[in-house]
Specification:
By secondary structure, the chain is an alpha+beta fold. The chain has two domains: 11-43; 50-147. It has helices spanning 63-73, 81-98, 105-119, 121-131, 137-147; strands spanning 11-18, 24-31, 37-43, 50-52, 58-59, 102-104. It is elongated. 14% of the residues are buried.
Amino acid sequence: MRCPFCHNEDTQVLDTRVSDEGDTIRRRRRCASCDKRFTTYERAELALPSIVKKNGSRVEYSHDKLADSLKLALRKRPVSAASVDESIARIEEKLLGLGEKEIASERIGELVMRELKRLDKVAYIRFASVYRSFEDIESFESALKELK
C-alpha cells in the first residue's frame, strides 16, 4: 500500500479489525519513510449485472440511481433512512444472487415495487404510476386494488 503523504510503497500494518457487519476490514498503517499513520479499508468487490434498458441499450448498475429512485418515491413519507438502506441491500442481494451478467430494467423495477409495497403504500403507488405509465383511471384503480 502506497503512503498517501509521501507515496512511499513501504508501509507497515499496525492494527487490523473486522467491521461489526463482517464485510469490511480496517487496517491502521504506518509509513516507514515519513512515519505518518493512515487507515485503509478493504471490502469485497462484487460485480452487479449490467442493466438492459427498454430501448436495448446497456448501462452499468448504479447504486446511487436505485437509491435516488426509492428516495423520490418515499419523499415526505414517514420511512426511516435505515429502512431504505435495508431495501436497497435486499434488492442488490437479489441481483447478486441471480448470478446473471445482464438484467432487464423491468425486472429491477419489479424488485423496487416489491420493496416499496413493503415500506409504504403511497410510495408504491407513486412509483407504480410512473413505472407502469398508467394511461387511464382504470389501470390506476387496479393498482390500488392490488394493494388491498
